[in-house]
Design a protein that fits this description.
β15 and β16 (about 225-230) form a beta hairpin. The strands form seven sheets. A five-stranded mixed β-sheet has the order 1-18-17-16-15, with no helix packed on it. The longest helix is centred in the middle third of the chain and has 7 residues, at about 130-135. It has one helix and 27 strands. Residues about 1-15 have low confidence and may be disordered. With about 350 residues, the protein is mainly beta.
């Protein structure tokens, strides 16, 4: 397999869709630079009759773990056989009692590890869980848990750091100095179980509509990757959150911002020209590669979802392949042999999703 190894270019400042800082290395790429491009068409559909409207799912070993966040669902997690598509278990009741959750978001990005994370966005709790324990008790019995700050961007997961701290995307960070809330970086280190609960009126601007990151650690180097959900940029940091390098492309979207008035006590920051920019949307990590789904839309149309792409990286940050899907996909999983990709898909945001399998 040919791979494209992108040269590093020394620069001192980054472009408009990120904060100003000294960057040691920057990678620029376009689609024309990529030597391996694969069209992904005609997937196999996986039909599970009992699924209603799953929020997301992941493949774990030989099974499908499904997340339900709909009010009509009594259980947050359901487990199905990947061979027979039959239900195996229902886990974690919806509620506020012991072992329950009010809402559930699945932070799992590996198909072999039975240890993964759940977030309850309503309770502001983060849980490390073991699948075997969940299957045995059918309710939430975490390996450990902690409360996270209300300052965390609600569209992002947090990254467990050590016994006392975690890394998160600060919802009050502004990518434009003109609309600054006094927070210089998108990522911050937070103390577990601490929440200052500052009111919105303590800030000048409401910035979450234009910020968001997919945050994870490179399993080989331990460096923190942050893929921007509103721009075609990936930032790479060390443990001290010093920015080491960026990966820019393939569209080099020029991002600009403005404010709009609303009923909110502070003005909302939005994209100019009524744009709704979508960048990186999901990721998955295997023993050898990092896969990142990229939408690349400047005008997101929820009732007519556009086909997406996926970039395959090695752990050194080199882009090996550009996969082009024949439709909109999300919630991806890749088997441990890097042979098949599983994903959810739908034509619009009101349609119930289907589960698909592509051969890579």
């Amino acid at each position: 397999m040919k791979s494209f190894v992108i040269s590093f270019i020394l620069i001192m400042v980054v472009s408009s869709c990120s904060f100003e800082n000294k960057v040691s290395k920057n990678i620029f790429f376009s689609r024309n630079d990529l030597t391996e491009v694969k069209e992904l068409n005609n997937p196999e559909e996986i039909v599970i009759d009992s699924l209603l409207y799953p929020a997301s799912f992941r493949i774990i070993k030989d099974s499908i773990l499904v997340v339900n966040n709909q009010p009509m669902c009594d259980y947050m997690l359901e487990f199905y056989s990947l061979r027979t598509f039959k239900p195996l278990a229902q886990m974690i009741k919806r509620g506020n009692g012991p072992g329950d959750m009010l809402s559930c978001y699945l932070d799992m990005h590996s198909s072999e590890n039975t240890i993964f994370h759940l977030m309850d966005g309503m309770a502001k709790k983060y849980y490390k869980v073991d699948l075997d324990t969940l299957l045995y008790y059918k309710r939430l019995k975490p390996v450990y848990s902690f409360g996270y700050s209300s300052e965390i961007n609600p569209s992002t997961f947090v990254l467990d750091n050590n016994a006392d701290t975690y890394i998160g995307c600060n919802m009050w960070y502004s990518p434009d100095e003109k609309f600054s809330n006094g927070i210089s970086m998108p990522l911050s280190v937070f103390n577990k179980n601490v929440d200052n609960k500052k009111p919105m009126t303590d800030y000048k601007y409401f910035t979450p509509p234009v910020t968001g990151l997919l945050i994870f650690k490179n399993p080989q180097s331990g460096l923190v990757w942050a893929a921007d959900t509103h721009c075609d940029r990936i930032c790479i940091y060390n443990d001290s959150l010093q920015l080491l390098s960026t990966i820019d492309g393939p569209d080099h979207i020029e991002v600009s911002y403005e404010t709009v008035q609303s009923n909110s006590p502070v003005p909302f920051v939005t994209f100019t020209k009524k744009r709704d920019i979508h960048g990186y949307a999901d990721y998955f990590i295997t023993d050898k590669f990092i896969y990142l789904v990229y939408e690349g839309n400047e005008h997101f149309e929820p009732m007519e979802l556009s086909p997406v792409e996926m970039f395959k990286f090695d752990f050194d940050g080199n882009i090996l392949c550009n996969y082009k899907f024949d439709r909109y996909v999300y919630s991806i999983s890749v088997d441990n042999n890097d042979s098949y990709l599983y994903c959810a898909s739908r034509k619009n945001m009101q349609e119930s999703p289907t589960i698909l399998r592509y051969k890579l």
